[in-house]
Amino acid sequence: MKKKIIENICMLLLIVGVFSFNLNAQAVNDVADNNTTEVKKEKKISIGWQKTLTNNVTVNFGDIRMNAKSGTGTFNIFMRRQNGGYKSIFSTVNEYASTYFVLLVGNKIYKLDSSCDVYVKKTVTGMVISYKLENVASVQINFDCIKSNSKSDYDIVKITSEIKNLSKKSKEMALKLVMDTDLGEKTDVHFYTANIPSVNSECIYRTMSNEKWIVSKNQDVSMQLLLYGYDVTPISSVAIANYQTVDSVDWEPSVNIYKSFDLLMSYNNSGVAINWNKKLYDKNGEDKFVFYIALSNNNIINGYQYIQNHDKGVDSTSEVATTTAEKRQPIVMTVPDNTQVVADNRNITPVEVVPEQNVASEPLTEEVPATPLVMPSVKVTNTPSNTFVPNSDVKFDVKTISKEHLTPEYIQGLIDRINVLANSDGPIDRSEILMLNSELDAILELLRQ
């Protein structure tokens, strides 16, 4: 009897132990399920902003392609060539690392790259890259693709940089963009602006009110940096120099005016640095900086026309703006060696050219550079209303023309210069137009020899 009782007690203890084990196991499984649910829920919330070393973003809008890499914090913009394939507007070496943004906080400089928390994301109009410096600041770069008019394909990228102060105190901050450009490095003209037809040496601008834009191009793709007008943020400085100069540790590049883009170990390697103004940011204070990059694969860049339309209160996507652009067709100019140069004639306004002595007293509409420049010239072969008539009284010295002036790239720069003069809102400097046409006559005479 006693033995039977002991056996029953042992059996009861065994049953209780098994039941307790099952309860503990179920509890463990419940906790694991809850944790898994939370992880899945958190992952779902962070889709598109999750930092991984392999998370890249590529977006296509018409002929424009943009790529961002969260692992390196780098980006690039591409334009499709007419004969197929894409051409980058920035260097592709080291996963695009030679083009980057820099943040100045007080006296400390932060390069925005993989050293930050980097997040990339596709958007409806492009892509976003976000850099976060813990307890310091965040910088978000928005790349938005737009159309210059209602009937064009996507041909402009609007770049908006947003800074936010994450520290507990007010901080003075500023932003800089370093670009490793290579489109013009294998041509006779690295860059040109609205005011200068050929920029082949180092220079720096404190305002873009005269230059307005910077173009770099090769035979396939053109890039236009739009740095003045409409909602473009005023710059502190824009430096064009050898890439090693703009890539220096100095906040503002130390430019050697008129020095070529060549260094001992770096030939024809040019770059651009844009510095925006310093500003005091309160705690959680924010600000944004805007500029545009217009792209083309047919030598006709619509960027500045887009800016001008908005400056004049005309929506570039409206039918009015499109109709106006359609009426102004490109000009094709043929020089004696049968090379055809395509020019953008949208900005040309018919001008009646009068002898130089009749306009000597008229004020200049643009600032005259302190040093003499070889200015461009163009002879437009279009309808009579759009033709500039040279005056035989204005002579140009053929001896001043070098081999660099006989290239299609230089002639393209001349055409762009005449466009700016002819489309000026102020009085037209007809004396300069006469000189430009005289220079073209001299170039053509030299080519005929």
Tell me the major beta sheet.
Answer: 8 strands, antiparallel
- Number of DSSP strands? 21
In terms of structural class, how would the helical and strand content be classed?
Answer: alpha+beta
Number of helices: 6
- The shape is globular
- Gyration radius (Cα, Å) is 30 Å
Element string (H = helix, E = strand): HEEEEEEEEEEEEEEEEHEEEHHEEHH
Task: List low-confidence stretches.
Answer: 31-54, 319-394
Q: Can you give the helix content as a percent range?
A: 10-25%
Nearest-integer average pLDDT = 75
Strand order of the largest sheet: 7-8-9-10-19-15-14-12
Cα distance, first to last residue? 133 Å
% residues in beta strands: 25-35%
Can you describe this structure?
With 449 residues, the protein is α+β, with helices and mostly antiparallel strands. The protein has helices at residues 2-45, 243-246, 303-311, 319-327, 408-422, 430-448, and strands spanning 56-61, 64-69, 74-80, 86-88, 100-105, 108-112, 117-122, 126-133, 137-147, 154-165, 171-179, 192-193, 203-205, 213-217, 222-226, 235-242, 270-276, 279-281, 286-296, 331-334, 340-343. The chain has an 8-stranded antiparallel β-sheet with strand order 7-8-9-10-19-15-14-12, with helices on one face. A hairpin with a 4-residue loop joins strand 14 and strand 15 (222-226). The longest helix has 44 residues, at 2-45.
